[in-house]
Queue: 2 jobs
Job 1
Amino acid sequence: MIQRTRSATSTSSASIDRSSHHRRGYRQWLGSLTNHPARQGGEKTPRTVSSPDSPILPEDLLLLLFQPESGVIAGENTLFYVLAGAVLADLALHESVAITTTRTGSITVEAVREKAPPSDEILRSAWEYVSDTPRDVQTVLPAIGPRLRHPLLERLIARGDIRRDGRKVLGFFNTTVLKNGHNGRRAGLLKEVRDVLVDGTEPTARTAALAALIWAGGALPQFDPQIPWTQAVINRAQELERGNWGAGATSDAVTRTMTAVIVNSVISTAAAASSRQ
């Protein structure tokens, strides 16, 4: 079970039993989410043309999970599920994948073949994995997740968002440590997420997905005090988890639904894996 509590905190009563939540109708709830009607020409998510070098969603997520004070990545025990969820969420935000419910209640993801494959090689690899046949979301996460951390981290280092420094231990052994790149990009991302979780700002689809995935992986308590670990923040994170982003949030119903399905699949898959450890 994923733990979201901190020791010596007054909000320990806010911890969430994810395993029992998903046992109580997880698949039925996700099935109802995917039964939204098709778009009727309503609100659309603004699309921007990104260069090949623009950060993808899992890069932003890994950068946020990096903790400059300690030099570690928060939530390592669930990291590859969360990064895989970010890959699927990125594809969903660009309408490159579709999610459906089978007759047995399984949630599947498949590539939208009418669209060109993503230009980014990490996104394209995941898109190709689900292009041949629809695959259960909870099997896609462990299939694509384990290979993501290293290339994503190398991208962040190459861009200068994180820097790798060498040092000697005990005067003999060479080792490397990760440090903040001080280019301001992590601080900017953190402010956007904080504005949504703490101040109640209506998010863009991308920021909503980032905040929901941080919550899904159980890493949100580690952002305290920048993002206070309070009941109000927990409530807001749960709203984002369910796809409730606000009446004026820049995303249509289908995008919200797909993101909510992916986030909840991350929670369920990670919780199941933790229970087996």
Job 2
Amino acid sequence: MSIQTQTQKPEPKRPDSIRIPADLRSYLRGEARKNTRSYSGEVVHRLEASRQADQQTQQKGQPQ
């Protein structure tokens, strides 16, 4: 890890407004409770997992 990376401040979190169907919102809220996360934390966790899966898929498709 370089010194520059250590001194950088994390990007501030900003609210985003997205439309989520009521049934999906209810499902995510229930899953957040089961996983002892906030609703927002559950959404971020699932989006991050999706991003990592996408990156792994892309890496598998690249020639070595």
